[in-house]
């Protein structure tokens, strides 16, 4: 299968490329030399889509591109960058798919559980509503742009991804240093939901959606057992054999991070209802075993 991948040098993208090495991969990247150093020189590389009039020779597209949402404080300029980095590439991919006479049979496009916004302690699934805020606005437009590629020839799968747990990157890369020093703990009262997924399960879900021709629409890419922030902190401390009792006041985060701190002080308990109904089997369903595996593999 010939697969076009965007966002391939990111935390998830690197693992996805490795897992799909038996296929012919086309990597879209601004810096080809850097990407070759990271991913290998045996793949095909495109620097732009501007010179493409269609995607007739591509069998599937996996779209992961986007500026990290927690990279910098949310100024108006940064908010625009976060949105444009997702919306612009998705718009172009959809246009090229629609212009193709033999378009890719599958378009898998990333989204995030931020679609739901803050949800309190009520579990949500793919049929649930949302709380209108910036994280929702990003995802709603991102998803709508991708879904416009849907046709009788192309099925579109949207993955609303939770907190991805894996070594050498992702959310844990920022969490581990204070926890290793015994300075970790819950944020505020710790009751906010944290919907997580082990990187191995996320990669397997991408493969499942890629190869299952009946799959289309929205899929929550989260483990079946979301946990509170307090439970997550306790599990991470346990995996590291460190105490995890130092509470971070929400006000301190607000002063340090601005509006972006709401991603940490609010949350949602997201259930992967459609993936489970389709027969997808998660390897990691318990936060303790998932974190233990990541910590042990990173040593």
TrEMBL record:
Protein's name according to its UniProt entry: TIGR01777 family oxidoreductase
Top-level taxon: Bacteria
Entry-linked CDD domains: SDR_a8
Family recorded in the similarity comment: Belongs to the NAD(P)-dependent epimerase/dehydratase family. SDR39U1 subfamily.
Domain NAD-dependent epimerase/dehydratase: from-to ranges: 3-220
DUF1731 domain residues: 249-294
Organism listed in the record: Shewanella vesiculosa
Pfam families reported in the protein's UniProt record: DUF1731 (PF08338), Epimerase (PF01370)
């Amino acid at each position: 299968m010939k697969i076009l991948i965007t966002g391939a040098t990111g935390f998830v993208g690197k693992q996805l490329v490795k897992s799909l090495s038996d296929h012919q991969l086309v990597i879209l990247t601004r810096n080809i030399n850097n990407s070759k150093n990271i991913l290998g020189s045996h793949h095909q590389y495109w620097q732009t889509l501007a010179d493409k009039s269609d995607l007739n020779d591509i069998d599937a597209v996996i779209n992961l591109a986007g500026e990290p949402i927690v990279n910098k404080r949310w100024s108006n300029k940064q908010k625009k960058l976060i949105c444009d980095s997702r919306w612009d590439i998705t718009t172009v991919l959809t246009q090229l798919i629609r212009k193709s006479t033999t378009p890719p049979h599958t378009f898998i496009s990333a989204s995030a559980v931020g679609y739901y916004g803050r949800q309190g302690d009520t579990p949500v699934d793919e049929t649930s509503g949302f709380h209108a805020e910036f994280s929702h606005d990003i995802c709603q437009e991102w998803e709508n742009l991708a879904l416009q590629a849907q046709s009788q020839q192309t099925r579109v799968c949207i993955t609303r991804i939770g907190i991805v747990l894996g070594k050498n990157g992702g959310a844990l890369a920022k969490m581990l240093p204070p926890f290793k020093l015994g300075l970790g703990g819950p944020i505020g009262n710790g009751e906010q939901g944290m919907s997580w997924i082990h990187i191995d399960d996320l990669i397997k879900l991408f493969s499942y959606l890629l190869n299952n021709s009946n799959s289309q629409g929205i899929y929550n890419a989260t483990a079946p057992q979301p946990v509170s922030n307090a439970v997550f902190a306790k599990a991470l401390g346990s995996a590291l054999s460190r105490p995890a009792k130092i509470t971070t006041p929400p006000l301190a985060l607000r002063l340090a991070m601005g509006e972006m701190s709401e991603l940490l002080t609010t949350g949602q308990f997201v259930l992967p209802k459609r993936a489970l109904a389709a027969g997808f089997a998660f390897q990691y369903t318990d936060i303790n075993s998932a974190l233990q595996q990541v910590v042990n593999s990173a040593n």
